[in-house]
Amino acid sequence: MAPDKKNAARLGAHIAFLDESGFMLIPQIRKTWAPRGQTPIHKHRYSHEKISAISALTISPARKRPGLYFHLYINNIGQDEVCSFVRHLLRHLRGPVIIVWDNSRTHKGSAVRSLCHRFSRLHLEAFPPYAPELNPDEGVWQHLKRLLSNGRPDSLDELVDVLITEMECLTHSPALLKAFVQHSSLPFFLH
Hints:
CATH class: Alpha Beta
Helix content: 25-40%
Strand content: 15-25%
Distance between the termini: 32 Å
Order of helices and strands: HEEEHEHEHHH
Number of helices: 6
Structural class: alpha/beta
CATH topology: Nucleotidyltransferase, domain 5
Shape: globular
Strand order of the largest sheet: 3-2-1-4-5
Number of strands: 5
Mean pLDDT: 85
Number of domains: 1
């Protein structure tokens, strides 16, 4: 018999906060330092090519240790990519898994429902509408976009390499991942 949501929490479920984002070759420009009177000039190729990314910031049930999982895609993320990523999470996380995400269309539909039927240990919860401040995974994207701002990768391959390097650094930084949780507007018991 599949455990219900209350029993899943009691049994020690992993909580996974999931979100998607995109990174374009056009750099995100932010304020920077320059000598007085020397306005910095930022040269880049004008290209609308992008990388779509999906990640989940996870919290283990016993020690509340944070973790980070991610996938990158050249095309937009749809239901199939979301389901593939959720299966990836289920391969790595033991026991019940509660995924908390926004109300995106890619998180609803027949593919997601069939995934829930196939994996009884998977439980899905939605954030309230228009509440990105609740999702700690938003902190992952803000951090990466801040790190990559004013950068100028010349190709999608270069952008992918930078993203993978920075995401892997994040996976090995539990203190930073915990800070994303603490700076979200989540209840204090997860901090």
